[in-house]
């Protein structure tokens, strides 16, 4: 059963999520904390954390650090807790290696649903995020394109979405439809596929982004280690 | 260095013209000697009687028996070598003397000095006749005779001329002219100009050239060859004082020997200059290394010899040898300059070569005069000969200097252009940097505001919403209001987005935000996007927020008041922009009567702010709102909502 590490500094929200997770039982809450240092300590000590839910604005630092640390273990599901699901938060989290986001204001049902489907459906994709992803994959495929991607807040590493076939044509169609503001159902109708297939595409898109971000993060980490004359991790 | 044929021809022509010119000059000066007075009544005395009066100024007149017939010119170097002292000359007076109103005697040349006596009375002279005799060997004398000293009985008038002299200075007496003062005056004045005033002028010019050249040569080591030239010019100018100074401040002998030594130094310095100058201007030419040493040794030896001479006779003995060596050096230097012109036939080099040819010819002429012991009264031309040469050499320096200055000017101007270009580039970079900094500041500010909204207001709203839902007596209205607040906040956040400010992005996102609300109330929110939208206008943040508010309000109205089951949001192409439609299948209303309730005024004011037109249409079932946005948003859209 998946073990959850929850990092959230707002006490009511944290308590609410704790109660939610405890009531659900699936996945299981392993630890809840409110600071970056505590989260990092938990992760580095090798204690169980198959799923990491983290806020970004934490009192002693940025949740992005928690995401980067968490992403160094393969197979771990990392979600950022967001109120608006806005691209500033979500994309920087994805760039740091997160695989999606969880809306804090969602109703209990939607959150439960989200957590249950964590490994099958992926996070909802807003039109804005979809469009940003399209833009960034297009930039990456344009020769001599600047590595600095638009729409990425400062201070976050940018994931180079290299390779022409980074996204399949279908995934691109799905992204385009979502980017125009159409729902999963409408996109499915337009593409003559099922809504579940759309969900799967979305999930794949997140996975690709996340894997790409993780590779990039690992590369960056190893580069820093090499600078300090320390052995890289593989 | 091979120069083209035509240039060679040019050099040859120039040199030939110079030779022709100088030959003409020499001919004129030589012929002038016998015919300088043109008046028919004036007579020239070429045969006289002479008697040597001994080494001291005579206090008595010579006795009759001592006179010997003597032809004029009487050059002492030829007739009485090594004689030092005085000689009386007795000249017969012409018969016309008694008839002349202003009779005068003209001595074109008498060295070192002379005075004229008439009938046993001294009638005139120049300077001092006692030792040391003043140096009037190059001073023509015109002596007017007072009519009272002339004897009216024509046969008895007799001119005596007393000449003081010593060897080495072409001492003696040239033919004497006797005539009316005004008839002789022109000849005297011309000779005086060429021998005295003109000579002084060359000294001044030479010194001026020397100062100019030395100054530049001293300041700019690139022109160091000219230092030798400047030194030579100084020596030359001082040496020419020989013809001008009649009463030197130092002993006569010393002055005379310094002048002779000066000639040697000039020759030595100028030959060194010629070699250096040729080396500078003729690629590949290297002068004989021994030349400098030899030239300086020659000048030093000449100086030692002449300064150590105790009398004129001793000095004169070595003159011929040193003069011959000096002429040898001069010939070498001048030919060197001529060959330079052939190797590099530029205008200034040809001018130098011509100057050298003229100088050399006149030098040889002067040398010939100097060693000639039978004539007297010739005009020396070397001081004039130096002028074309020196001016030509100075012109090369001036040209070099001007070229260097031109280069400097061009360099400066190109440097200025470069600096200007660099500055422009720098300013552009700065502008870009400032823009980037502003952009970064904007982004940081946006990130901060977003963070604040997210963790502050957003967090509290989310908590309030949760509490409202969990409350024992769930208040649907409160939950609804909180959800509205949440939507408002999200729309505000969306409008801040940097890249997504075209109607499709804005409305697509709005639809995504609003859809759950519609769903939860059992109303369908359809969303239609035309296939061909064309280029969409880009809105600034405030216009984006205005547009979002208009559509949000319209959607909210349809949801709350119309009772519709389907609301359609559509984006279409309009004639000059895009058209946004909000249509419902509800009860509808009359836009003319229901003005306030639906916030129509508010909507109209927002639309006018972004330059959009807004219109309601009552359909058979329901209402349609159309907002038409121009392709280019109006400037008034920049005002805050």
Topology of helices and strands:
The complex is a heterodimer of chains A (234) and B (641).
Chain A: E1 3-7, H1 11-24, E2 28-33, H2 36-44, E3 51-54, E4 57-58, E5 61-62, H3 63-70, E6 77-82, H4 87-96, E7 100-103, H5 108-116, H6 127-141, H7 169-179, H8 184-191, H9 195-227
Parallel strand pairs in A: 1-2, 1-3, 3-6, 6-7
Antiparallel strand pairs in A: 4-5
Helix pairs in contact in A: 2-3, 6-7, 7-8, 7-9, 8-9
Chain B: H1 5-32, E1 43-45, E2 47-54, E3 68-71, E4 74-75, H2 76-79, E5 85-92, E6 103-107, E7 110-111, E8 113-118, E9 121-125, E10 141-144, E11 158-165, E12 172-173, E13 176-180, H3 181-219, H4 225-239, H5 252-281, H6 290-308, H7 312-343, H8 347-371, H9 382-470, H10 476-495, H11 503-520, E14 524-529, H12 541-561, E15 566-574, E16 577-584, H13 600-609, E17 613-618, E18 623-630
Parallel strand pairs in B: 14-15
Antiparallel strand pairs in B: 1-13, 2-3, 2-5, 4-12, 5-11, 6-10, 6-13, 7-12, 8-9, 8-11, 15-16, 16-18, 17-18
Secondary structural class of chain B: alpha+beta
Morphology of chain B: rod-shaped
Question: Which structural class do the helices and strands of chain A define?
Answer: alpha/beta
Q: Radius of gyration of chain A in whole Å, from Cα?
A: 18 Å
* Mean pLDDT metric of chain A: 75
Helix content of chain A: 40-55%
Report the sheet-strand fraction of chain B: 15-25%
Characterize the structure shown.
The complex is a heterodimer of chains A (234) and B (641). Helices cover 50% and strands 12% of the residues of chain A. The longest helix of chain A has 33 residues, at 195-227. Chain A has 234 residues and is α/β, with parallel strands linked by helices. Helices cover 55% and strands 15% of the residues of chain B. Chain B has 13 helices and 18 strands. Chain B is α+β, with helices and mostly antiparallel strands and 641 residues long. In chain B, helix 10 (476-495) packs antiparallel against helix 11 (503-520) and helix 12 runs antiparallel to helix 13. In chain B, the strands form 4 sheets. Chain B has a 6-stranded antiparallel sheet, with no helix packed on it. The interface between A and B is large, with 34 and 37 residues.
């Amino acid at each position: 059963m998946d073990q959850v590490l929850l990092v959230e500094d707002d006490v009511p929200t944290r308590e609410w999520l704790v109660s939610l997770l405890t009531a659900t039982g699936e996945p299981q809450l392993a630890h809840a904390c409110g600071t970056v240092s505590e989260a990092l300590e938990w992760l580095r000590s090798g204690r169980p954390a198959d799923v990491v839910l983290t806020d970004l604005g934490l009192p002693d630092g940025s949740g992005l650090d928690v995401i980067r640390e968490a992403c160094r273990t393969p197979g771990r599901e990392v979600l950022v807790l967001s109120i608006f699901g806005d691209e500033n938060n979500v994309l920087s989290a994805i760039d740091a290696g997160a695989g999606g986001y969880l809306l804090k204001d969602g109703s209990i049902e939607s959150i439960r649903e989200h957590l249950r489907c964590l490994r099958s459906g992926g996070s909802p994709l807003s039109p804005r995020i979809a469009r940003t992803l399209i833009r960034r994959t297009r930039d990456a495929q344009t020769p001599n394109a600047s590595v600095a991607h638009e729409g990425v807040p400062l201070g976050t590493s940018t994931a180079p979405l290299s390779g022409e076939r980074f996204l399949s044509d279908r995934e691109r169609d799905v992204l385009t439809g979502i980017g125009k503001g159409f729902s999963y159902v409408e996109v499915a109708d337009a593409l003559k596929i099922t809504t579940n297939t759309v969900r799967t595409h979305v999930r794949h898109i997140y996975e690709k982004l996340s894997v790409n971000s993780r590779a990039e993060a690992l590369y960056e980490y190893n580069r820093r280690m090499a600078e300090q004359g320390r052995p890289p991790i593989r | 260095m091979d120069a083209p044929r035509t240039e060679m021809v040019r050099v040859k022509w120039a040199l030939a013209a110079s030779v022709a010119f100088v030959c003409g000059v020499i001919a004129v000066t030589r012929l002038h000697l016998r015919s300088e007075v043109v008046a028919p009544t004036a007579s020239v005395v070429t045969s006289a009687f002479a008697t040597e009066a001994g080494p001291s100024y005579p206090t008595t007149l010579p006795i009759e028996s001592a006179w010997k017939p003597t032809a004029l010119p009487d050059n002492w170097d030829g007739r009485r070598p090594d004689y030092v002292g005085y000689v009386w000359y007795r000249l017969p007076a012409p018969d016309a003397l008694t008839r002349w109103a202003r009779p005068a005697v003209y001595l074109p040349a008498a060295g070192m000095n002379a005075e004229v006596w008439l009938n046993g009375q001294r009638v005139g002279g120049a300077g001092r006749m006692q030792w040391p005799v003043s140096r009037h060997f190059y001073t023509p004398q015109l002596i007017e005779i007072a009519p009272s000293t002339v004897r009216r009985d024509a046969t008895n008038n007799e001119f005596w001329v007393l000449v003081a002299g010593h060897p080495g200075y072409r001492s003696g007496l040239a033919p004497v002219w006797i005539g009316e003062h005004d008839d002789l005056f022109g000849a005297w004045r011309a000779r005086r100009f060429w021998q005295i005033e003109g000579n002084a002028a060359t000294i001044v010019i030479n010194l001026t050239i020397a100062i100019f050249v030395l100054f530049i040569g001293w300041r700019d080591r690139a022109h160091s060859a000219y230092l030798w030239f400047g030194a030579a010019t100084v020596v030359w100018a001082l040496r020419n004082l020989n013809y001008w100074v009649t009463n030197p401040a130092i002993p006569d002998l010393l002055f005379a020997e310094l002048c002779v030594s000066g000639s040697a130094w000039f020759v030595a310095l100028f030959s060194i200059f010629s070699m250096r100058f040729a080396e500078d201007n003729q690629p590949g030419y290297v002068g004989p290394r021994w030349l400098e040493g030899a030239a300086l040794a020659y000048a030093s030896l000449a100086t030692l010899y002449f300064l150590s001479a105790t009398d004129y006779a001793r000095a004169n003995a070595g003159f011929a040898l040193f003069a011959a060596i000096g002429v040898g050096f001069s010939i070498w230097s001048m030919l060197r300059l001529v060959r330079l012109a052939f190797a590099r036939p530029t205008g200034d080099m040809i001018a130098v070569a011509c100057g050298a040819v003229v100088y050399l010819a006149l030098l040889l002429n002067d040398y010939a005069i100097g060693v000639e012991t039978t004539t007297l009264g010739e005009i020396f031309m070397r001081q004039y000969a130096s002028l074309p040469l020196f001016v030509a050499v100075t012109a090369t320096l001036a040209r070099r200097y001007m070229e260097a200055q031109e280069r400097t000017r061009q360099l400066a101007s190109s440097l200025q252009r470069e600096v200007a270009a660099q500055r422009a580039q720098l300013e552009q970079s700065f502008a870009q940097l400032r823009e980037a900094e502003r952009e970064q500041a904007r982004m940081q500010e946006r990130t901060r505001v977003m963070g604040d909204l997210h963790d502050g207001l957003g967090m509290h709203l989310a908590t309030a919403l949760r509490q409202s839902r969990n409350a024992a007596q769930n208040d649907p209205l409160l939950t609804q209001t909180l959800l509205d607040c949440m939507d408002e906040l999200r729309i505000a956040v969306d409008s801040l987005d940097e890249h997504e400010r075209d109607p499709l992005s804005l409305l697509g996102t709005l639809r995504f935000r609003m859809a759950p609300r519609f769903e939860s109330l059992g109303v369908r929110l359809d969303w239609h996007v035309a296939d061909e939208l064309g280029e969409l206008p880009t809105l600034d943040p405030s216009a984006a927020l205005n547009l979002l508010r208009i559509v949000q309000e319209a959607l909210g109205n349809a949801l709350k008041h119309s009772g519709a089951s389907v609301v359609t949001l559509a984006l279409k192409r309009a004639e000059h922009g895009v058209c946004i439609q909000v249509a419902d299948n509800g009860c509808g209303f009359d836009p003319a009567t229901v003005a306030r309730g639906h916030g129509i005024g508010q909507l109209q004011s927002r639309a006018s702010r972004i330059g959009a037109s807004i219109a309601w249409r009552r359909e058979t079932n329901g209402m349609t709102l159309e907002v038409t946005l121009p392709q280019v948003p109006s400037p008034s859209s920049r005002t805050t909502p």
